[in-house]
Amino acid sequence: MVFSSILFLYQFLPGVLLLYYLLPRRSRNGFLLLASLFFYSWGEPRYILIMVISTVLDYSCGRGIHFAREKGKEGAAKGWLLLSLFGNLGMLGFFKYSGFLAQNLSALTGWENTLPAVALPIGISFYTFQTLSYTIDVYRKETQMQPSNISFGAYVTLFPQLIAGPIVRYTTVAWEMDHRRENWEDFSVGIARFFLGLGKKVLLANNIGLLWKAVSAQNPEILPGVTAWLGILAFGFQIYFDFSGYSDMAIGMGQMLGFHFLENFNYPYMALSITEFWRRWHISLGTWFREYVYIPLGGNRGSRFRQMRNILLVWALTGIWHGASWNFLLWGLYFGLILMGEKLFLLRWLETWPKFGRRVYTLTLVAFSWVIFAFEEVAQGAAYVQAMLGKGGFADGTSLYLLQSYGLLLVLLAVGSTDLPAKLFQRMPQNSRTREALASGLLLLVLGLSTAYLVDQSYNPFLYFRF
């Protein structure tokens, strides 16, 4: 079940919200746990046990760390932490990377790989990092142990962000798990945020995704440069509006239920450097790696060599987190090397450039990164880069047709990926009734158009399900 489906929009979500608010407060976490398990089992009934095991493991490890500390047994507390780390990363490694490792070992040694293919449980990368943040923070004394297994289970399985994030650290919702107070203001803001995300996903990402689908189906060896650039621009907009739209929906649903998740995107295509881009893109993932990998490795402390090593290692892990494929590792290393260069000298150089030049620099590098990300076959990605550089000529009839068909949408997406629409809305007359009426009308229009699109179409992918 996906958020952008008629089943979810008109049956599951309204039913959950109705029952949630009819129940007394003391029963709401238990209901959220059951509703979230039902939501997950709808798409992954085989692997719900994996999520339950992860939940039980980290709940037990959190308690173990807490009570070991109370008895002054620091070694035992560290043992519980290691159990959580090895248990969670072991499951993630088995389901996500065992096939990749076996395949490459077979290619290197000639060993006949007879291991059965292992399907990837939906959302395992997200909820594994989420549960790990709890045990690590309990060990660091940055949060208290959650005494209720029901409340902890609700935290791990909470359906708004279960399958696609944002990655919610326990510390950000610890108080709200047992003490939140829902109100109409939060609920109405949550609805608006949800509808906004739905429109970004269904009306924008899905439609521009058709352009990428058409271009990526062509042979990159003979692709004209204009067509190649149109395709990768389409992919860049698709993945942004797709994932940020889902994040908006998750944040909005969380607010309807009384939770306040942190932002996951902050207009990344407005960044003036790659360093800034990654402060704005998938913020929850970047925060996780900074807090639990980069800083423990030493961060910016120590020699310049150690700092560069830490950056490269974190970005190699960031890349491979996205998928068990060489292109994702290369994608992570690509950004790692650029960020190393910016830290060493590029940022100082870029500061002398006008903003327009800095944006061109950033968006060009990001565009080439999407080629690495999009093609699992590295050779195919390399051929596509050559097409972008003009190997297949400048343009042909198809290029002009695609530009004519999608040019206006690309312009709208470019504007929509900036903060300009929000600024224009803020400059409207301050009469609250006028603004509320306009906002309500626009959101209802988005809902109506999105519903019509979902009823009438079959192209409704979600790019981050595979992670």
Automatic annotation (TrEMBL):
It holds the Pfam family MBOAT. GO terms for molecular function: acyltransferase activity. Coiled coil: none annotated. InterPro entries: Ac/AlaTfrase_AlgI/DltB (IPR024194), AlgI (IPR028362), MB_O-acyltransferase (IPR051085), MBOAT_fam (IPR004299). It is found in: Cell membrane. GO terms for biological process: alginic acid biosynthetic process. It is a multi-pass membrane protein. It comes from the Bacteria. GO terms for cellular component: plasma membrane. Keywords: Acyltransferase, Cell membrane, Membrane, Transferase, Transmembrane, Transmembrane helix. The keyword Phosphoprotein does not apply. Its main location: membrane. Belongs to the membrane-bound acyltransferase family. This is MBOAT family protein. It comes from Proteiniclasticum sediminis.
